[in-house]
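Attaching the record inline, Q. Sequence:
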Amino acid sequence: MENILEVSGLSKSFGRQQILRKIDFAVAPGTCVSFIGENGAGKSTLGKCLVGVHQPEAGEMRFKGHAVQPGSPRAAMQLGIGLLPQELAYVPAMTAYENIVLGAWPARAGFTSPARMKRWVNAELDRLGLQLDTAQYMSDLSLADRQLVEIAKALVRRADLLVLDEPTAALSSKESNDLIELLLRLKADGLSAIYISHRMDEVSRFSDVVNVLRNGEIVLSAAPRDTTDSELITAMLGQEPGTLKSTNTAPNTTVVCRADRLNSTTVPPLRDVSFDVRQGEVLGIFGVRGSGQDVVGEAFGGLRPEVSGKICIAEAEYAPFATPYSSQDAGVSYVPAERKRNGLVLGMSIRANIALPIARRVAQLFGVINAQAEREIARQYTSELDVRYASMSQSVGELSGGNQQKVLLGGRLAQRPRVLVLHEPSRGVDIGARLQIHEHLRELAQNGTACLLITSDVEEVVAVSDRILVMRDGEIAAELCGNERSQQNTIAFATGAEQ
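Structure, as predicted:
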């Protein structure tokens, strides 16, 4: 049987960083080929190259026997390749049926109408066996139904191959199961798919072939029945499963911070998430994208006022913080995951960014900043964190990602927090800065600071944490201590792999 898609030698880099290296694979009609790997392995970049979001530097794609290289997602769709991206692209103020026909309106003599569009969409959904209230506005639909709209958008345009990038990352367990059942039925009807995911249980159910990406290369390719979760995880990590021997000193038993029954209506919803952080401890909370750990981190930073429950700092009890100011006033310093959006003012100087979180402390009469105090504080933390810069007056936006992250961390340390919460602290930094941040975090813990590390980087959470809480579908799936703290165990619990 002729393959519907053949990819050979596909390579992609951004600047000097090589993301994909000579990728080769094929998809037969009516089958699913999956790609799994750690964050940063190149999975999403591969999907975007296939549908024209990115243009590869080398390699060839053959679709239905013809050499193709789509220049855009629209061009890919015209060929018959549809994309369900991580970040859904829709118009919230339009109905579901209007979004489905957007750019491909059913018309007679060049004219159409809402009734014609709705009638045509409903007929197409009936043909596909999809159940959806197409008259609802997108803003009123659940995330699962918005996903369904995106799938329908591709299928009514007669897509023969669907590229799905983490389609269940933000769905609940039931919604994920319903989507997989739908995809299995569509595959049985002849749809071909490329499935990019962290979730090994879903990959095993839906895939005919699983490819493991590591550092931009396919390091293992096998049918799910011919491999095991343990073998897949080993391939992802590049090492045999093992445990990390802790070199951390035993933490103080004094509880500095406690989260009590955190719940939310987010996707996924938090369900009675409770834990404590002790003095001198790094508590790591790990989960793959969409597991709920991001909501926990943002709740501590005052960015999720919809979260209910209690947060206790020392002897004081609080409702989850409604604003970053209330978080800071309680003694929490929060290092956000998105430093450019929530953490730094890129046009301001290094000195000003470090002093900004403690502006009230360094202010003089009428709120004027004490320039000397600002300089001394900035000098202290740039020295401690080894920030590389030309001048303290240099704008933060001119620094490398790693140095920006150190400036962000310096400003939070200047708050002298009771609890330091770090949300993806090494995202977007080079390996040298990453190691320096990890070393400084361990030093802070050894000096008595209670640290909460929120991350989707398994290597990071195992290397730095004293204890690891693994989240899945908005709940704590496991607590790993001592020799249990291995990358193997952490990923297995996070992805639902068999133990």
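The longest helix spans residues 173-188. Residues 93 and 172 are 25 Å apart (CA to CA).

More tomorrow.
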